Amino acid sequence: MMYMCLGDQNFGVGENDRRYLGDVIMINPEGEDLAEGEAVPVCHMTGGHDVSCDDEDEDTYAVPSDIPFVENKGDENEVISAVRENDCLLLQQLAQKNVDFNSLCHCQWVPCTIRVQRGDFSRQLQMTGYAAIHVAVIHASIKTIKCLLTGGADINLRDSNRRSPLQLAAAVDRLKVVRLLIDKGDCDNTFLMAVFLLLTFHYEDLVRTLVESGADVNLPDIKGTTPLSFAVGHMYPSSNFGTDLTIIRILLDAGCDVDKSNPAGASALMLAAGLKLVPVIHMLLSAGANINKMDNAGHNAFHTAVAGQRNLSAMQTLMWNGAATHTSNKKGETPLDKALQFGSISILRLLLSADAAPHRHDIMTAPRIVQLRNYLPEFDAWLRQEMHEPRSLRRICHVSDMAVISSVFRSGLFKDRVAIVTGGGTGIGQAIALELLYLGCNVTIASRKVDRLEKAAKDMNSRLAKHLNAPLPKLNTFLNATFVQKKRNTVEVHGRLDFLVNNAGGQFLSPAANITLKGWSAVIDTNLTGTFLCCREAYTQYMKENGGTIINIIADMFKGFPLMSHTGAARAGVDNLTKSLAIEWADSGVRVNAVAPGSSIYSDTAAANYGSDDIFSFIKSRVPAKRYGTVEEISAAVCFLLSPAAAFISGETVFVDGGGKLYQNMLDIPDHQRSKAYTWENDVKEQESSGNCGPQSKL
Ligand SMILES: CCCCC/C=C/C(=O)SCCNC(=O)CCNC(=O)[C@H](O)C(C)(C)COP(=O)(O)OP(=O)(O)OC[C@H]1O[C@@H](n2cnc3c(N)ncnc32)[C@H](O)[C@@H]1OP(=O)(O)O
Ligand SMILES: NC(=O)C1=CN([C@@H]2O[C@H](COP(=O)(O)OP(=O)(O)OC[C@H]3O[C@@H](n4cnc5c(N)ncnc54)[C@H](OP(=O)(O)O)[C@@H]3O)[C@@H](O)[C@H]2O)C=CC1
């Protein structure tokens, strides 16, 4: 097949190869003469894409019509001139004379405007130091390119912008040339170029084939760009991500080093953060990317996200995943400094909510902020309030210092009672265990980590000894492979079991789409199945005959639990289990209730589970009480429900959340246009366009 190229410019083809038909130039793919009046199939060339043609014969070729160039021919060498003329005969003669096919010429050349298919992105492809091969891949016929390669042209030769011939051919959408070069197989880092092709032309199969044939997926190009950072760096926040995420997935599955940096030290995560590519950030983090890795200038991904301004969703995502939010770069600048420079109110709000403002005194007087305060009285008022509110996370922790023990309940309230508190070695569970002990109850704490349990037991015993003017109740620890075993031991040890507090539990942050079956099962097993087994054993072994009280600690998941869907589902299950058991076991004198802490009960272990305190700081801004909850506040609710004061309460869930469940959701939904409104007008249009005009039910 031959192509017709539209335009009225000189495309650099040899006189012998052209025929003029008005302002239409006819070119034979092989650079041969066209017979006068020969019919030529037309392929749409606008935008430089010859992909619309389904011809598979690689030798067919059209010189692109829309690649005008401004040149200074004077400085170009004879090889380049021959290429421009598609003069293979001359090229052969030059090769015989051993003329260097790789010498660079240094004149200015503006060969084309590239139209990248996504968005409105377009740019000029300018070349200043190029050789014949670079001109050829953009402008010459396949035959000419083959002549050139036979004559010794280097298929990997970089132009002065370090672009390879393959890169240039891809940039101007000359897919047949791209295929030729890739088939030659000599291109350095062909894989990276394949990534480029996937991104630009959705050449997914090509990338998969290369991966399967053992391509080095970590090989950087001459500038040090890796395929992964290349892929991430070429995405657009507005793209629909489908193909782009596919390439990231292929690369990660193929063993790409997720933290490999470019020469500036930037990782793919930093690029994704700067480009606001939230789904990519999630994928990279799930693949183990180091969230706090720094580039050569001392920036981490959070710095990059802040520098991207209007990038709140990326900042939030990083914060939630434990990014350090107040580290300085090598110039000593923190993300807050950037926010102050920009004068960005939303970034400032986010950073303040995350306590990422260690030198807050700077804030009020920063020049941009002063301007904003002058113009925006509401902002001024808000900022003043923020500055004066005792809000630091750590300050609250210090207040919660558990070296002292107290309780609003009367001492001896639970004397000689026996309780099991699962997860009683840390955080909320430890506070519950301690308060129960303080009120005279014998307590067994149980969890997975024996060292934690032993340290907690030692610590609690020494504190009780200081604060309890009565014989110490018994405190046992159990390390258990399973909850069931744990209960059996406890029942044997004490001979009775009055209270069971199912507090052990937890989860990890993850978009639902990334949760593996194993991860899902781990969270369901820990929180739902574990709680069920504990309840069942406590009931069958003791409470069925003797009565008792069970408290299940759940979570504030009643509006859904985005990014923690597994635990949301498990806790909703426990909420319902609580009601079922409250009814089924009522005739044994067993009460079953739940306590739902808001997502803001700070403890070091809880924060450590998410890598840092930032997630809690973020959530605090969404709690009406505008502060963290304390572990004592959960313990107090539990003690109340265990006490006779709650004798008539069963099957109930008590929220201890500062009003959080009534207020905001944890996740901001980005702006989008994916929700299509149903109107009769749209309905009719849709029917018409589908050719379905009759009144019929679609349900
Ligand atoms: C949003 C802010 C939170 C506010 C509300 C809630 C607050 C709290 O609940 S604070 C309490 C925090 N404390 C904990 O969460 C307790 C500790 N947590 C855990 O131990 C785990 O998260 C667990 C619940 C999953 C327990 O898992 P375990 O049975 O020990 O399982 P493994 O650790 O072996 O992991 C099994 C499987 O799960 C997947 N997975 C585990 N962690 C992660 C993670 N961080 N990211 C992604 N996926 C994870 C993974 O598939 C694991 O398998 P492998 O890959 O083979 O290890
Ligand atoms: N803090 C908060 O804001 C909120 C907490 N919650 C829930 O409150 C409970 C207590 O959390 P908190 O004290 O904050 O956090 P912690 O991380 O300190 O407590 C979790 C406890 O559960 C134990 N645990 C976890 N998995 C298992 C298991 N498979 N078997 C036995 N024990 C296990 C852990 O001990 P070990 O590692 O030794 O096994 C740890 O003592 C959890 O269920 C939590 O999800 C709910 C909503 C909000």
Descriptors:
Rossmann fold, 699 residues, 28 helices, binds NADPH dihydro-nicotinamide-adenine-dinucleotide phosphate, binds ligand LGGBLMCM, Serine Threonine Protein Phosphatase 5, Tetratricopeptide repeat, trans-2-enoyl-CoA reductase (NADPH) activity, disordered N terminus, alpha/beta, phosphoprotein, seven-stranded parallel sheet
Describe the model.
It is built from 28 helices and 13 strands. It folds into three domains: 66-188, Ankyrin repeat-containing domain (Serine Threonine Protein Phosphatase 5, Tetratricopeptide repeat, Alpha Horseshoe), CATH 1.25.40; 190-355, Ankyrin repeat-containing domain (Serine Threonine Protein Phosphatase 5, Tetratricopeptide repeat, Alpha Horseshoe), CATH 1.25.40.20; 418-690, NAD(P)-binding Rossmann-like Domain (Rossmann fold, 3-Layer(aba) Sandwich). Helix 20 links the parallel strand 7 and strand 8 (442-447). Mean pLDDT is 76; it is low at 1-62, 115-123, 390-402 and 480-485. Bound molecules: ligand LGGBLMCM and NADPH dihydro-nicotinamide-adenine-dinucleotide phosphate. It catalyses: (2E)-decenoyl-CoA + NADPH + H(+) = decanoyl-CoA + NADP(+); a (2E)-enoyl-CoA + NADPH + H(+) = a 2,3-saturated acyl-CoA + NADP(+); (2E)-octenoyl-CoA + NADPH + H(+) = octanoyl-CoA + NADP(+); (2E)-dodecenoyl-CoA + NADPH + H(+) = dodecanoyl-CoA + NADP(+). This is Peroxisomal trans-2-enoyl-CoA reductase. Participates in chain elongation of fatty acids. Catalyzes the reduction of trans-2-enoyl-CoAs of varying chain lengths from 6:1 to 16:1, having maximum activity with 10:1 CoA. Has no 2,4-dienoyl-CoA reductase activity.
